[in-house]
Design a protein that fits this description.
globular; about 70% helix; about 400 residues; mainly alpha
Length: about 400
Amino acid sequence: MQKVKYLMLSLGLVLISSIVGATEAGVAHSINSVVEVQQYNRAIHIMAMLLVGFGFLMVFVKNYGRSAITATFLMVAVAVPLYFLISDSGLFEGNRTEIEKLILAEFGAASLLIAAGALLGRLKMFQYIVLGLLFIPFYMFNEWMILENGLGVMSGSFADTGGSIVIHAFGAIFGIGATIGLAKKKYLEKNVEADATSDRFSLLGSMILWVFWPSFCAALVPVELIPYTVVNVFLALSGSTLATYVMSVSLRGKINAADIANAALAGGVAIGSTCDFANHTEAVIIGLVAGAVSTFGFAIIQSRQQKVFKAVDTCGVTNLHGIPGILGGLAAIPIVSGLDVGNQFVGIGLTIAVALLGGLISGKIISIFGERKEIYHDFAEFEDVEVEFEVYPRKRA
């Protein structure tokens, strides 16, 4: 009878252990599922930023709205699958879930759109596709080298959670390099025009980016840091928006729509490197400084930059993404405790070098496919477009 009791007790313990083990496994699986669902939601937010936010932000060029949105559509459609194709080939090592790879692919697409902003209006439609095919391999190489210690050059820590350096600065500098590679004297002779309608759509795009920017920065941070990161990003964006208004009025005498649509986002760019480290006061300060610097760039530096490089930066990506991105990377030095300062400088320097070289090479390759003669206008490639003027008069037969 005693043996039967021990047998029953043993069976009971085994059964309880099995149930507990299964429950723990189920809880772990449930937690992982919740995290992936949250990441999926943020991935959708980022896709809205790419297609709607970036798309409408670049509609500011008068008579080029259809082309700007279509080019955005095509570049995202190229960048995401190409990122997966290269990633799945094992060329660049990395252990990521499918949803994490999707988010990283979206980051690559965002950086591509930034680069394209420098060239906007001066490429044929299929050349935007060529730009995407050339850009993503360079982007992934830099991402692997800086964030995954590829080639063994990044031995210490590097702070860039939201991509101030790897996404924003890289895209802007790549775009400038490509612009220099494609530079034509006649491009300097044609002004980039905007009107009230294009400005309104651009402001709409900016607000959409503003709303979803916290999801961009918090997409891959640990779950416990998401609320803190989201608040920091909104604070930085608020700071840059206020600074943009003050600087725009101070420098120009009145509010400039292009300043508000662009420089107001500089806080989101600059807070990227420290979005999960900075305290709230630091986040506001970063936003204020980034907004002020960006507005100064649009109002003062952009025209001088064009004369120095003999190339046009259509969307002013240097002032929105390039300078604020580098500023954000440098801000990590006093803010992130235990950061390898030397490594941070190395990462920034390598990113600038790879982006500039990649952009110059890509610009030269794209130039092989010819040039767009009617720049900043839809009529060359779209049906049913009213031709208000011809950018370059055609010779009569």
